[in-house]
Amino acid sequence: MNDNPCLLFMSSLDDPDEWTRALHEAWPEIEVRVWPDVGNADDIDFALVWKPEPGALRRFRNLRLIVNLGAGADAIAADSTLPENVPIARLADTGQAEMMSGFVLLCVLQYHREVQRLEVAKRARRWDYVHPKAHADTRVGLMGLGYLGVHAANVLTDMGFRVSGWSRTPKVLPQVETFAGLKELSRFLANINILVAMLPATSETYHILDREVFYALPRGAKFINVGRGSTVDESALLQALLGGQISAATLDVFETEPLPPEHPFWLMDQVTITPHIASVAVPETAARQIVANCRRLLSDESPEFVIDRARGY
């Protein structure tokens, strides 16, 4: 057996050298092995993974914690091949949260300051003066008040926007009017100027953003999705955009990714498309949280940020 704690890194999308440096800086004693060069499988204590191959982690008999390398936990929560007795933790990375909140703020400011209208005027060589509004004149609604959603709410309130938040279960946040459950959803939507979806992908959130939701918003509302593509009924959104009920949308996630070239969203001037880039894990900050969770297990403490596999987040 290995004397030092040993972590297996398994991701085809992330730089293993960058993560290894960050993990060693946070915990010099830890040994990091990169899939598929695992060495003695019995040495592995922890696994930092993104969409591991089905069944790949069952060979590690001494595995104590699986850390999901990303905010979305739906894929790993649905993986029935993972060891049943090993907890799965999600990231609660300050760097990732700052990146997400910055992206949300960028999108909100573009709509609040009517940048799209100014771009149209520029193409027409028309001086179109738009008198600036105070941030407090715009109400932003956040659907999803998890770790990233709460961080975004705090950033928006600090900037002076009026913020409402909706979540599955009741939450209390300073300076945020909160709503919970399906019974309060329509009341939440009634006065939102810009709706930001930050929901996880679960059976309960599948197509929760449907025609009824879009038409419960004030006419001309803007929509931003940085959560999961499966939460949106894209045909309902398309019709709401074509009819002017939703005047503009910024979409970072889709039901099918990459978004197929024949999809009508590509041709719509009122739709901004970004390729699932709103936020990623930042090794320098995430490594500290990962190490802290690993140390908790070695001290016989329960890990934090554990995913409920049944709920999918």
Tell me the β content. 15-25%
Please tally the helical runs, counting DSSP H or I stretches of 4 or more residues.
9
Enumerate the strands of the largest sheet in spatial order, edge to edge or round the barrel: 8-7-6-9-10-11-12
Number of strands: 12
CATH superfamily of the largest domain: NAD(P)-binding Rossmann-like Domain
- Major sheet: size, sense and barrel closure? 7 strands, parallel
Judging by the overall fold, what is the CATH architecture of the largest domain?
A: 3-Layer(aba) Sandwich
**What is the radius of gyration?**
21 Å
CATH class of the largest domain reads Alpha Beta
* CATH topology annotation of the largest domain: Rossmann fold
On the 0-100 scale, what is the average pLDDT?
A: 96
State the share of residues found in helices, binned by percent. Answer: 25-40%
Low-pLDDT stretches = none
Overall number of domains: 2
Shape: elongated
First-residue to last-residue Cα separation: 33 Å
What can you tell me about this protein's structure?
This protein is an alpha/beta fold. The chain has 2 domains: 6-93 and 281-298, NAD(P)-binding Rossmann-like Domain (Rossmann fold, 3-Layer(aba) Sandwich); 94-273, NAD(P)-binding Rossmann-like Domain (Rossmann fold, 3-Layer(aba) Sandwich). The protein has helices spanning 16-26, 74-77, 94-112, 115-123, 147-158, 185-189, 211-216, 234-242, 283-298, and strands at 6-10, 31-34, 46-49, 65-68, 88-89, 139-143, 162-167, 176-180, 194-197, 221-225, 246-251, 271-273. A 7-stranded parallel β-sheet has the order 8-7-6-9-10-11-12. A 5-stranded parallel β-sheet has the order 2-1-3-4-5, covered by helices on one side.
